[in-house]
Amino acid sequence: MASRPGRRVAIVAGLRTPFVKAGTSFKDLSALELGKQVVAELVQRAEIPARAIDQIVFGTVIPSVQLPNIAREVGLAAGLPKNVDAYSVVRACATSLQAMTSAADAIALGEIDLAVVGGAEAMSDVPITYSRPVAQAVLAASRGRSLVEKLQAFQHVSAKDLLPVPPAIAEYSTGLSMGESAEKMAKENGISREAQDTWAHRSHFLAAQAWESGSFRHEVMRVLTGKDFDVVVAEDNIVRKDSKLESYGKLKPVFDKKYGSITAGNSSPLTDGASALVICAEERARELGLRPLGFLRAYAYAAVDPSWQLLQAPAFSAPRALKRAGMKLSDIDLVEMHEAFAAQVLSNLQAWSSKKFADEHLGGAEPIGDVPDDKLNPRGGSIALGHPFAATGARLVHQALRELDERNKNTALVSVCAAGGLGAACILERT
Amino acid sequence: MSVLRIETGPDGVALVLYDVPGEAVNTLRHGFQEEFEAAFGRLAEDSAVKAILLASAKPDSFVAGADIEMLSRIKTAAEASALARGGQQAMQRLEDAGKRKPVVVAIHGAALGGGLELALACTYRIASDDRRTQLGQPEVQLGLIPGAGGTQRLPHLIGIAQALDLILTGKSVRAQKARKLGLVDEVVPKAILLEVARRRARELAAGELRIERGKVELKLPKLLRTEVLQQIALEDNPVGRKILFQQARKALLEKTRGHYPAPERALEAIRIGTEKGPEEGYRAEANFFGELVVSDVSRRLVEIFFATQALKKDTGVDDPSARPRKVEKVAMLGAGLMGAGIAYVTADAGIPVRLKDKDDAALGRGLKQIAGILDERARRKRLSPREREEKLALLTVTTDYSGIRNADVVIEAVFEDLSTKHAVVREVEREAPNAIFASNTSSIPIGLIAEAASRPQNVVGMHFFSPVHKMPLLEVIRGRSTGAEAVATVVALGKRIGKTVIVVNDGPGFYTSRILAPYVNEAAFIFNDGAAVEDIDRALVDFGFPVGPMQLLDEVGIDVGSKVAHIMHEAFGARLAPPAGFEKLVESGRLGRKSKKGFYLYGESKEKEVDRTVYELTAQGQKRSSPTTGEIAERCVLQMVNEAAHCLGEGILRSARDGDVGAVFGLGWPPFRGGPFRYADSLGAAQVVERLRRYQEKFGVRFTPAPKLVQLAGSGGKFHQADVVKTR
What we know:
The structure holds two protein chains of two kinds.
Chain A: E1 9-16, E2 20-21, H1 31-46, E3 55-59, H2 70-77, E4 85-88, H3 95-108, E5 114-121, H4 132-143, H5 147-152, H6 178-189, H7 193-213, E6 223-225, E7 231-233, H8 245-249, E8 271-281, H9 282-287, E9 294-303, H10 314-325, E10 334-337, H11 342-353, H12 355-361, H13 382-385, H14 392-407, E11 411-418, E12 422-429
Parallel strand pairs in A: 3-4, 3-5, 10-11
Antiparallel strand pairs in A: 1-8, 1-9, 2-8, 5-8, 6-7, 9-12, 11-12
Helix pairs in contact in A: 1-2, 3-14, 6-11, 10-11
Chain B: E1 4-8, E2 13-18, H1 32-45, E3 51-56, E4 61-63, H2 68-72, H3 77-100, E5 103-107, E6 110-112, H4 114-120, E7 124-128, E8 134-136, H5 150-158, H6 160-169, E9 172-174, H7 175-181, E10 186-188, H8 193-205, H9 227-231, H10 238-256, H11 261-276, H12 278-293, H13 296-313, E11 330-333, H14 337-348, E12 353-356, H15 360-379, H16 385-393, E13 395-398, E14 409-412, H17 418-431, E15 436-439, H18 446-450, E16 459-464, E17 473-478, H19 484-496, E18 500-505, H20 512-528, H21 533-543, H22 549-556, H23 558-572, H24 582-587, H25 629-649, H26 656-667, H27 676-683, H28 685-699, H29 707-715
Parallel strand pairs in B: 2-3, 3-5, 4-6, 5-7, 6-8, 7-10, 11-12, 11-14, 12-13, 14-15, 15-16, 17-18
Antiparallel strand pairs in B: 1-2, 8-9, 16-17
Helix pairs in contact in B: 1-3, 3-12, 4-5, 5-6, 6-11, 10-11, 11-12, 13-26, 14-15, 15-16, 20-23, 20-25, 21-25, 25-27, 25-28, 28-29
């Protein structure tokens, strides 16, 4: 059995806030505030002494200008000891996976023993910037010595420059939005509208079922918010409790109105939320009397040309991670796949199974194969649960380990596609 | 023993370091005067010395004031006046030296009392911007006034109104505020304090730096702020000054009710100095200082100060091998008024708190209360927004026992009911088997609560007072089977969260609730017999309590008072029987402030007004006739003193000292009367017993003198053996 070099890394605790539609329950909270809440609560629930924490690795995808190193601010704001080292990472939708694997490597190497990792996203609180002419004028004005000089700086700014610029969820290199890229993938991979809507319905149906049965009780904290702490946010609010397949068909395509198939219903929505994990060296868990939820067996990242199929990199990262783990897909008891779009999920799965894809792209290796339906996203996915970019990876890891525990099974594959043509995969095991 | 070290540098600056050998902080003590006069006299003459730089050699304190033990040993007013005059002369020598060559003082850490007076006598004051740098004249807090020129130099430097604000209240200010007041000339980071101070000394000597002190902006402190005052430039003309002093005296008397002579004397010394010149001013200051040092009020305040100092060093256990556990996490069960208050003070001390209650709504209310206190502090700029966040982040909430297993101490403030407490004890033993279990009960004996425990050695009482963040006392209760480790741990925790901690043995009402019961009972008897509510309250406020017993009942809750009264009655029999009629109040829905119906009206009006309908519940109805103020106060106070003597005699209290501190900091016993035991000592036990017996004849068993009092009356002994409690 292949194993990672160095010390074995245990995941000992995890937690997330409810994931809520942007502009709803968390509209007054920043990524820092959400991150702080989840980290403070996680550390308490994990019942680890605060002094045992060596490092916090944290991220947010849409950064705030005020918080260039959000990990440090989250650590300080959450009341962790001030000597806990901190750095931030960004890997688009795989940000908190990156946080976990970076810290895991440091643990494996013996640099640190225990880390808090995670990510937070506040789409309700994105920084709105000004156009370049305005920004340049403001800077010039700040250098001006007199009022006249200060005012002169603005003489070339036109009225339309004054419109604020929201951050685009578009690829910088291709100029295509995420949805447009998904449209492209649906068409090129022949993913039908019906197949997408069926997947979206599955996601909501299973997520609602999981909430109903209490599966999330150990994974989701309640957040008391509002000026008087009298607003209790206890559940994800995107999950449709009465999802009906027919209703998905009624939605109009968003990105390609004429030939398109991507709708608001079969995509993951803009979401606010945060999640975090406590990971540590196996022997450290033993010393602290902690019962690991599971272990990180292997991970891999991959990248593809963004102008090809932006969200198809998991077709490369998953085989790579399995190879590093010395495992086949058939050894895996559970697959948790991030659902940016139903079209992306179905494209990724199709590529995993396809001999043609393997021949063309993986040098003729055997395709890793099909994922049985009952082993795939059994509690739904990001389409229903929501997708706070930086928080999704840690959610998937914790959720996978809890689900394995419920099923009394051992191994899981977590797969995440990310903007920029990136893909991430990690293999977890409970024993 | 030398307290000054002098090093003259090649730049002609003589660095004078103040360093009292063998002490952590500098104080002004016997002999400093001669050494100062000699040193500054010599430096003034020495032609190699161009400038003088005065600083403290202690790491984080400048000079904390006069040595209080030295003052407490003084027997006569003349002796104390002479000491003050010596101090004045030393400061004068310093000021005179400054007329020949500049004397710069570098202040880091506390410059209080004599320490500030020392700085005031220098030419140029420069302070570090550190939080620990505090400047003030706190003498009035010990019943004294500045005695080394402070009442003269301070008004001269910062103006009369601002000087009055500092001297009459005893408050201290940080460096930035001090600079705004003109109290210091410059504020710099601590790391470069000495360097900049030395440079300023050179510049002043070379005539490169001229000291220009602008007129202090006339912004009257709160104490004196009235519309009339703001319209006239008070200090610039004799008429204005006269009004200023009159107003200040009036405001002062309203506050002290004549119980505290020190601020009045300080005001007088300042007035004399401004009206008749410094010579008269200094003379008045020294005379008043002398008179105050040997006054009863100051003696009592100093004793209380020493008692709290001694308690800071008291581990609370007699077994020296008992060590407190390290506390890294506290769990607080119950997020009500008390629970949230305890959670707040704990988080404020930097300790993570896990707050548990039955539902999110209760937790939300607790968080709101805590955030409210933090917001208020942030608004007053006592906390930065960042600090506010940090403190709030130490608080997490839960409705189950998650995150409680690794708590070192679990404090409960759940409903005051034995079976509820028992259920909580069992739950905590199951969920956090190693934790120390502290009950914030105010009336249920710890021994009873511990009956449900399988590890009763871990069960202890922590009786906090409401509002927790304002009341300074913590009463720790040792039950029959409470272990020394548990006591030591919660005592250390209590000190860490800033409380003055006394340890008492178990019994109904412990100490504070117990001595309060007969005091409140007596007030209720007096009320029942026909006295007016306002007469009862006024009598005790005149005695020196912050509020009277009827108002106290309204605040605490008449139902709570009644419940405690019955517990005490059951435990101690007829002596503590409450008057009939308590129930009638409760039954009629009169619970005090919380039901907006009590002895007082709780409506729109800001003025406190008695709810006269309450009289219908007594036999006398609306026709009220009260005993004299003196009798009301005496009866209530004697009840408290007598019960305190019972507590000492029965071994509830470890010492009379603890009993005095408990009454002053927990119940608002007037500090200038020293506490029930100091008060009894000042009257003499025989006198106390005689008065009790007189009332006993009239009112019966409830005035039976405690055996301990009778014993002391017989032997002529005192509760406190020595006149002065030693701190070391």
